[in-house]
Amino acid sequence: MSSHNKCQYMNDQIVKNNLDYTLFSWAKQGGLNPINAHRAKGSYVYDRDGKKYLDFSSQLMNVNIGHGDQRITEAVAKQMQEVSYVYPGMATEVRGKLGKKLAEITPGNLSKTFFTLGGAEAVENAIKLARIYSKRHKIIGHYRSYHGATYGAMSAGGDPRKFAMDAQSVNNFVHVENPYFYRCPWNSATMEECGERAAAHLERVVQFENPDAVAAILFEGESGSSGCIKYPPMYLKKVRDICDRYGILLIIDETMSGFGRTGKMFGVDHHEVTPDIMCMAKGLTSGYLPLGAMTVTDTIAQKFNDHPMLLGLTYSAHAVSCAAAVANIKILEEEGLVAKAAKMGSYIEAEVEKLKEKHPSLGDFRNTGLLGCIELVKNRETREPTTPWNAKPDQMEATLKMAAKIRELGMFTFVRWNWIFIAPPLNVSKDEVDEGLGIVSEAMAIADQYCN
Predict the structure, then answer these.
(1) Residue 165: pLDDT band by 50, 70, 90 thresholds?
(2) Which CATH architecture has domain 11-65+336-448?
(3) pLDDT tens digits for 95-130?
(4) pTM of the entire structure?
(5) CA–CA distance from 34 to each of 10, 288, 410, 412, 415 (Å)?
(6) Domain ranges of the chain
(7) Across the strands, what pairs with 430?
(8) Which fold has domain 70-334?
(9) Do residues 163 and 239 lie in contact, with contact meaning Cβ atoms separated by under 8 Å?
């Protein structure tokens, strides 16, 4: 066997082992053709045949500092030479260092952190803590939201991926409409009016559900996989006011929108709001190691000085993951990546605006920093989506064609129903953005064929 054939055999065997012995998320398992990832650097992932893919969604909107930064590797290796794991009842230097840093960079009086292994676990523990602290039981969230795939987090969100277990979902979760101006449920004339009506709707639901039973309102810091629905400027402040009026805790899930993704350190920083509990993950380590965090205000923390906090995880405050997070935040700050995200986001917005002249399918573009998505339509006047929300398999023709074209042209990003996501690493270059938008434009040309 020639060296080329041997190499190809080995590559094929890697994919075969993956398909034969592992299960892939959110997909039927037959007919899969995964990218055979070999290495990654900066904004690119390379497969084992040498083809490179521009990572235009930072994988799962989490590789904020880009791929392959060896400063994380060095920090992790150094920590493992000292201590890799001790049970969460022990103190480590890196745990305290990370907790202190999060207290410094999170808004307001958020001061103490409980560490998890991801965003869903952070949300699960935020829900538990809110119920323990308030002695209430109901949680209100948005219909168009996603908070993770564990049972409680999936029930808290409104993403239709939960429908498979919806009849057996966790009790006492209530949902409200988003202030989705492009498809405003109240047919508002302005984004501000949509926000006012959404806040009034939320307060009515609170009243219908009995305010004394509502433990928390749980919203994303900035909408992500549900279509990057932008909050009207006053909306989160009105939500904060509603929480204060009825003694309800405000939980903000910054899993996707945190650590510079939106052009500020956290999504809520755009709205000058301090939640009672903040959930974090993804950009906390830029995906280099699993880690989540639930940070609470000093008011909440003080209650547990005299009462047991009945939350726990085997891998809470894992020293190696904490080391990755400390190094990651240092990189974000030293390289000014938060400001870079804001600047590049403005450039992308201007360039996408130009694409509207070329593509009749481009209905809307919602973006904050480097968290954005293009919404595609068959008709700009009627706003009929190219692919319906939660489309059935036989309605996915255009979406599947666009996704295939993007992969063929050497790019990785999410095409979900009638949305194409744009969320590259925060240190993405202008040339890489231009490359990505060129590929997006070719995908939109497919959507144009469905316009009427």
Answers:
(1) confident
(2) Alpha-Beta Complex (3.90)
(3) 999 999 999 999 999 999 999 999 999 999 999 999
(4) 0.98
(5) 15, 20, 14, 12, 15
(6) 11-65+336-448, 70-334
(7) none
(8) Aspartate Aminotransferase; domain 2 (3.40.640)
(9) no
